[in-house]
Amino acid sequence: MNVRRLIPTAAVxxxxxxxxxxxxxxxxxxxxxxxxxxxxxxVASFYPMQFLAEEIGGSHVSVTTLTKPGTExxxxxxxxRQTGGLSDADYILFLKGVQPAVDDAVEQAGVKNTVDAxxxxxxxxxxxxxxxxxxxxxxxxxxxxEGxxxxEGxEExxxxxxxxxxxxxxxxxxxGVGKSLEKADxxxxxxxxxxxxxxVTELNALDKAYETGLKNTSTKTFITTHSAFGYLAERYxxxxxxxAGIDPEAEPSPARIDEIHSVAEESKATTVFFETLASDKTxxxxxxxxxxxxxxxxxxxxxxxxxxxxxxxxVMKSNLTALQKALGAK
Length: 330
Ligand SMILES: [Zn+2]
Hints:
Layout: H1 9-18, H2 23-27, E1 40-44, H3 47-57, E2 61-65, H4 80-86, E3 91-94, H5 100-109, E4 114-116, H6 139-144, H7 146-149, H8 152-157, H9 167-184, H10 189-213, E5 221-224, H11 230-235, E6 239-242, H12 254-267, E7 271-274, H13 281-290, E8 293-296, H14 312-327
Parallel strand pairs: 1-2, 1-3, 3-4, 5-6, 5-7, 7-8
Zinc ion binds at residues 74, 162, 226, 228, 246, 299, 301.
């Protein structure tokens, strides 16, 4: 039973006038209006999804994030409460391939408005096994094989999920999220549209800043512990040399370390980047051996007090500054 029906009409009118509740929306009694405060109850898998949901959803959504701030997201395990709570969500936003535990739980939850951000842009293979060439010309082929194998999971296994670190791809995802929110909660479609446009404008400006800021540099190569920057590198004509693979906690092989030594010399790389949420031991040892500096390049998989900015846009700007410094931007 809807508790609001019991509130005397006068009180309701007052509340509406004060903007405390959105009864008009509730009267449509759509399944999407599940939140007790009339807001769309959104569950986001990790920070880059949370940011999109908050920016685009604005005041019409109440966002819960499965990955707590400061937790490394790739190895996330969900509590039974989190898993159980998923089926109560009105709208789930996740990115398949980042967090296996979340992928499974989302599938189990069977929520109607479930959006996989990976489907809103194009994923590529950047060689999850380290040492591979970062050839983007493989992209077309990857998709060409899909029919033959027929097993979706296998095909997706090699795809790099870190699309949010490319402002252009992230903007594509933002567009898709905006459209899906309009569908899930049509009463507020105009606001979702407006918020999406505003965010995309910001992301376009960020893209321009990267493009201009990284145009003229002494080297195009950067070394990083966590191979999260494949899309970013490709977008701006850089080469990412990942010490470990897509998993930030993976220990690099001695052969890979040797390889990095020669790459660093040849490319005149100056800096070994590490990230805020994972161990910096490998980066520091390697930098010391090579006589290089260390720096922070934040893969934005979570935001904490230690992040170099309060939100996605700010951290991306400080990543740009760090890259410009390491690459010798002119
Ligand atoms: Zn990652």
